[in-house]
Design brief:
alpha/beta, Rossmann fold
């Protein structure tokens, strides 16, 4: 049976296998996606407390997710501050939705300028955001109908989310529904066509099934926004991230399936040097910016 690309519907070919999952690559748009992934209910079940605070229960084990999302707040805030500057250059004020808001770190920064809302598939993360940080973060999936009215938001952001989704096109169509005409959408994700991804091959840290399911090229992202309908003016900007030194070692350990390296990274994260935050240029990532059609003209 011919397997078509879920984004452009082009022909695909077998690419690689890792951790029991097979990947296919689109010959036309370059998309890399997991073939025969688990049902959406199973995938969403992975985003429980252990995904965000794995070190407390699984110290020393190689796993997907965060050693501790709480302990990563300093580096996350630095990265999100950079992204917030980008959002402010597009929209000065109004209603903002953060899809995949987790504990609401980005929303906490953005609340000075925007009326903020969050959405996260994790009931645990949404509860932490509400109960501990007083943020309006709701549990739910952007791939399904959300509780928001049509044309409600001035800007929607999806930071490192779209690669997790089972149906990215359905998600983008829902974003289109709740975004005002002339409103902006910002998406950060990996660029699977980048030289670094191709160089690393199976050792690329982005290959994290069943959590990461769809890996986009810029061409694939443009096509996805076109298929969702109602988006125009697609532009791409480079991405940078802030990381703690210990966090980088932990990520490398997970990527290379090295338990001892992961354990060293976790221990190093608690040291003075390991907590130091540095800025890292990420050539294999981009931020896509799109505008919903129907911008009002004066």
């Amino acid at each position: 049976m011919t397997v078509r690309c879920p984004i452009c519907e082009g022909k695909t070919e077998t690419s690689i296998s890792k951790d029991g999952y097979s990947y296919r690559r689109c010959i036309s748009c370059g998309m890399l996606f997991v073939n025969d992934h688990p049902p959406i209910e199973v995938i969403q079940g992975h985003y429980a407390e252990a995904y965000f605070e794995a070190s407390a229960a699984n110290c020393g084990e190689v796993r997907l997710g965060y050693p501790s999302y709480r302990e990563a707040q300093e580096s996350l805030k630095a990265s999100f501050a950079r992204k917030l500057d980008l959002v402010r250059s597009l929209v000065k004020r109004g209603r903002l939705l953060d899809v995949g808001a987790a504990y609401g770190t980005f929303l906490s920064l953005a609340s000075k300028d925007f009326e903020c809302f969050g959405l996260d598939v994790s009931a645990y993360a949404a509860r932490v955001a509400r109960d501990e940080f007083g943020l309006d973060v709701r549990q739910g999936s952007i791939e399904q109908t959300t509780p928001f009215a049509d044309e409600f938001f001035d800007v929607v952001v999806m930071w490192d989310v779209i690669e997790h989704l089972v149906d990215p096109i359905a998600a983008l169509r829902e974003v289109r529904r709740i975004l005002k005409p002339g409103g902006n959408l910002a998406i950060s994700t990996d660029d699977v066509a980048n030289w670094l991804v191709r160089l690393l091959g199976r050792q690329w840290w982005g290959l994290a099934a069943p959590l990461h399911l769809h890996h986009f090229s810029k061409q694939g992202m443009t096509i996805a926004l076109q298929r969702a309908g109602g988006f125009e003016e697609v532009a791409f900007v480079p991405d940078k991230r802030e990381y703690r030194l210990g966090e980088i070692i932990s990520h490398l350990g997970v990527s290379f399936k090295s338990g001892w390296l992961t354990n060293i990274g976790k221990r190093f994260e608690t040291s003075f040097l390991g907590r130091r935050v540095i800025t890292v240029s990420r050539p294999e990532q981009f931020i896509a910016i799109a505008c919903r059609k129907g911008r009002e003209t004066s």
